[in-house]
Design a protein that fits this description.
It is a single chain. By secondary structure, the chain is of the alpha/beta class. It has one domain: DHBP synthase, CATH 3.90.870. The chain is built from eight helices and twelve strands. The protein has a seven-stranded mixed beta sheet. A five-stranded mixed beta sheet has the order 1-9-2-3-8, sandwiched between helices. β2 and β3 form a beta hairpin. α1 packs across α6. The longest helix is centred in the N-terminal third of the chain and has 12 residues. The protein is globular, with a radius of gyration of 16 Å.
Length: 222
Amino acid sequence: MSRCLTVDPHCPDPTVLQEAIAILQQGGVVAYPTDTVYGLAVDTMNPQAIACLYTVKQRPIAKALPVIIGSLEHLALVVTRLSPSAERLIAAFWPGPLTLLMTPPPHIPSLLLGDSRCIGVRWPHSILSQQLACGLGRAITATSANLAGAPVACTAAEVAAQLMPRVDLILDGGPTPSSEVSTVLDVTVEPPCLHRAGKICSEALESVLGGKIVCTSISPAL
């Protein structure tokens, strides 16, 4: 049965945080507010939990799941190398609403990647998101907390309307600051390729990179 707990997203109560982390450790699904919209977290190294998340969200398994890291130290757990473009963008925009598509190491569960050769990684401003990942000790998933193809959720009530009772816990941190999703940029290619427009505009990205980026017609719902 789903539970809903109130949480201060800027200063989470340790008891609430530990309950959420325990659910993640047990393979459960937790809905939580990020610095963009509400997301769904599972342990990125637990294939059974990842499979459950696809079922909860009714998401095609061909579509990869993006992840959130709690600190830059976690980046090495999910990415093999950083391109010069990735290093410049990380310095300029992380923590923040920028998801970078990068090359994953061999140990990443294949189910997390779907049909993609890349893994989408973000280090958010959200203290709650950071502490969930740090408490688990590795990355958590960051896919939006809505049914596939449905509107994103910006409140806990909107999450509940779509996903209860299929999630184990909803952390109610109030309305998210914005309904705008993160920008998604592939930095495994040169020039980098914009896969989804979001809170960080292409002009800002190009200013940091010192050149044009390529835009793709693919716009994955993450």
